[in-house]
Amino acid sequence: MCEYLISTPRVVASPSSEEWATLAAQTIGSSIRAAISRRGSCSLMLTGGNTAERLYNCWARSSSLPVEQMRFFFGDERCVPPAHADSNFGLVMRTLFANGEPPDGRVARMEAEDTDRDAAARRYEELLPEQINILLLGMGIDGHIASLFPHSEALCSTQRTVLPVVGPKSGHQRLSITRKVVTNAESVFLLATGEEKGKVLADALKSPQDIMALPARLALGGTWLLDDAAARQLS
Ligand code: 6PG
Asked: 10-234 — its CATH code?
C-alpha cells in the first residue's frame, strides 16, 4: 500500500500546561460538532494514558460532548478485564463517562480479556466503521501511538485493522488498531505534553518516512495538540 504521508502537522499549542486540557477539549469538540453537522453523527476513537485522562475529565466537567450523535471506539486495550486498573475502557468509564455510559451500544469495547486474542481482534474489526471520523492518539516517549510500538511487526500489516500485540514491557499483551486505521481516519489528533515528548516530535519531523522507528510519524498529517513545553521543542 503506497501511502503519501503529509509531514507538516497542524500544531495547536496551549500557553501553559495547565491550560492544555481546556484547549484540547475545545479544539476536538469543535471538530466533533463539525463532523455531526456534515454527517449527522461522529465516530470518536479514544486512547488511553494520563494525557488523554486530563482531556476526558475536562469533557466530563463541561458535559459538552453531543454523545447522542456519537459512537465511541478504542484505539487499543490492555489484555485485562474492564474493571482492571490498567484497562483503557475502565479509564474512560471513570472519567469521560463517570456520570454514566451512553446507552444503546454507543461505546464499542475491545474484549481484550478474551484469551483468544485474535478472535477478539477480529470481532472488533467487524464493529469498526469504514472510516473513523476523529481519532485520538496519545504518544509514549518511545514514539508509540495506540499500542503500535517501534519496530513492531503490527506496523507492517496492510490488511488487518485490529491486531493482538505485545508491548515492550514483558507480558504486556494488548489489542491495537493498525496503521491502516490511523492513515484512513478523517481527522487525527495527537495529544502530547512536556519537553521530552516535544523532543520526540521534533525528531519525528526530521525523517517523516521512517514509521518503524517512530510510529507517531503516522500522525504527521494530523493536528498535534501540545502544551508550550512540547511546542517549544519544534522550533
Ligand atoms: C495506552 C495508550 C498509549 C498512551 C501513550 C501515552 O494504552 O497506554 O493507548 O498509546 O496514549 O502511552 O500515555 P501518557 O499520556 O500516559 O504518556
From this structure: 3.40.50.1360
Q: Are 12 and 224 in contact (CB under 8 A)?
A: yes
Compute, in angstroms, the gap from residue 92 CA to the centroid of ligand 1.
13
Extents of the domains making up the chain: 10-234
CB-based contact 143:216 (threshold 8 Å): yes
Q: Are strands 134-138 and 70-74 parallel, antiparallel or unpaired?
A: unpaired
Identify the residue whose C-alpha is closest to ligand 1 atom 11: 138
69, with CB counted inside 10 A (0-12, 13-18, 19+), is middle
Cβ-proximal residues to 3 (8 Å cutoff; 6+ apart), any chain: 183
Residues 218, 220, 225: CA angle, nearest 5 degrees:
110
Å from CA of 147 to ligand 1 middle:
8
Residues in the chain: 235
- Cβ contact 138:191 at 8 Å: yes
Distance 95 CA to ligand 1 centre (A): 15
In sequence order, the β-bridge partners of residue 30 are none
Greatest Cα-to-Cα distance within the chain, rounded to the nearest angstrom: 46
Q: Which residues line ligand 1 (CB under 6 A)?
A: 47-52, 75-76, 88, 138-140, 144-147
pTM: 0.96
Q: Please write the tens of the pLDDT for every residue from 84-141.
A: 999 999 999 999 999 999 999 999 999 999 999 999 999 999 999 999 999 999 999 9
Which atom from ligand 1 is nearest to the alpha carbon of 145?
A: 10
Q: How many angstroms does the Cα of residue 33 sit away from the middle of ligand 1?
A: 25
Write down the pLDDT at residue 2: 46
